[in-house]
Amino acid sequence: MPKTHSEYNKQIKYRTSSKWMLLLENGRRSKAAREGFGVGTIPTIAQFYRGIVYDWFIKNAPELINLNGEIPEVLDLMKLKEKRSENKKNIDFYFNRRD
């Protein structure tokens, strides 16, 4: 069931073609997205969009992220990355111990 409660009070709305939405949806469901956001899980639409924007800032204007202090969306992405690396360590440990 989708998450109905959100602690964020702003929303972004934009107009786009159905082909662009299909591209975004296919990207979100891709193997690269599953590996990048968590082991074997498909990121939510919000996680995927935040990840895309965050990557743009990291590559093009990293100083802006540091200027604004603690941004809740950035903290959420960091938690997601930590969880991903922890899951990967557990899976690697399991497969390395197999005979």
Question: What does this protein look like?
Answer:
- By secondary structure, the protein is mainly alpha-helical.
- The chain is 66% helix and 0% strand.
- It is built from five helices and no strands.
- The longest helix is centred in the C-terminal third of the chain and has 25 residues, at 72-96.
- The model has no long low-confidence stretch (mean pLDDT 79).
Descriptive terms for the model:
mainly alpha, about 100 residues, globular
Describe the secondary-structure layout:
Layout: H1 18-28, H2 31-37, H3 45-60, H4 62-67, H5 72-96
* Distance between the amino and carboxyl termini: 39 Å
Radius of gyration: 16 Å
Largest β-sheet summary: none
Which structural category fits the helices and strands? mainly alpha
Q: What is the helix fraction of residues, given as a range?
A: 55-70%
The assembly state of the depicted protein chains is single chain
Q: How many strand elements? A: 0
Strand content range = under 5%
- Following the backbone from N to C, one meets helices and strands in this order, namely HHHHH
Q: Mean pLDDT score, rounded?
A: 79
In short:
With 99 residues, the chain is an all-alpha fold. The protein has helices at 18-28, 31-37, 45-60, 62-67, 72-96.
